[in-house]
Amino acid sequence: MTQYLLSIYQPDGVPPSPEKLGPVMKTIGAMIEELKAKQLFVFNGGLHPADAATVVRRDHGQIVMTDGPYAEGKEHVGGLMVIKAADLDAALKWASRLADALILDGMDRGLGVEVRPFHHG
Amino acid sequence: MSRATADEVARVFREEYGRAVAVLRRHLGDLDLAEEAVQDAFSVALERWPVTGVPPSPAGWIITTARRRAIDRYRRESRRDEYHAAAAALMTSDESLEDEVVSDERLRLIFTCCHPALAPNVRVALTLRLLGGLTTAEIARAFLVPEPTLAQRLVRAKTKIHAANIPYRIPDASELPDRLQPVLAVVYLIFNEGHTASTGGALMRVDLCVEAIRLGRVLLDLLPDEPEVWGLLALMLLVDSRRETRTDGDGDFVPLYQQDRQRWNRARIDEGQSLVRRCLARNRPGPYQLQAAIQAVHSDAVSGADTDWRQIVALYDQLLAVSPTPIVALNRAVAIAEVDGPAAGLALVDVLDLPHYYLSHAIRADLLRRLGRTREAVDAYGEAAGLTENARERAFLERQRSALGLPVAPRDR
Lengths: 121, 413
Hints:
heterodimer, A: 121 residues, alpha+beta, four-stranded antiparallel sheet, 37% strand, globular, B: 413 residues, mainly alpha
């Protein structure tokens, strides 16, 4: 088994209304229950918007803190999930289910999910 | 047994490398180790075969030798228990080299090389390296990238396969249509790059066409019951049957309607057409089969004028239904122009949004020329010539343009 990080990339700005978000959260909740039942679930969590982030780095001997996310951009990681899967194909299937949940009614393009393996899964 | 020359060893290398790596990959569990072992075996072959001759089963010899070399290497290098365990596993692993086992391993490797999680250019490089047995230098030369860049691309790909745990697995029936598509696309891309080299002085790179057809045959061998695999091989064979007539003595491009059809390669046409007939009998059409059928209609015609353009339009209608791309619509417009006249064709070309595709301008130029709209034709030939990277095609377009006898209008840029 390999462990995979599934990162959900969200656009910055005002989140969709609770009415729109409700069905999305419900589908993801059901997916997590299924992962747990199959003992493939490790962790999940949602994040505050990227404005709440701080970057810390040692630079020329002192710790320097920068307000805001590490990478500038219009999309940032908004939530993540860690799962176990037999191989990348299995992980991609779960990621596809997540991606299927992450598309609001009436939109052509949903949120991107990055699938990335951990060392020594 | 005859004595082998270095050339013969090189030929066996090209033919058997993929098979050997696929089998060794299973035993060793790692692509890099498999490649190393197979390369070791070939360096032994280079020493021995000139003296002993080529063994009756070169692939079997290479695989057995590679396995022994891998065991030796483990023994030499092993201090740790895990190496002993690996060497022991290698020695006890089944020696069977039955065709079926080997075929399965090759097929697994193809699907790994063409996995959708890898970038398309990486799929092409991996397939040529691991299945085609081309060296890194040869692939780099074929695609005009610096060798270190290509080598790095291959290393990164193999690292990803390993780290992300991309499986070596034959997709099941429900996944096969989706997973077969990128495999066919990789082989066709190699063929197309050979057919019209995207840059450089020569129109074609015959070696890539030959390689793509060889890979097409490997696929046919491994997936004998997939009509799209038949269609792809048929398409490549039919297009390649005109290889000798596509250029004149000076290496300049000769369009289809001016080619000497007597000189088309009969063997490739016959093989391609018999595959197309198999596809028709199966009646599970797909994009490659339809493209092959269109090429088969051209191959049937004894002259350009004798071409059954109505049949070609009907096939393009079907193709457009399964792959509704502007490129297909453009090719259909060419066929429509032959049936309903250049004005009808031009009306279809003009609504397409292909501003950067040289063929769109070249086709427009030809239709404008036939309509007597010479001024516009000159401009369109100029656009087309400016967009192609292939020097031979550019020369052809410029000849067409100067044949119209109008000076090139000064252009605002």
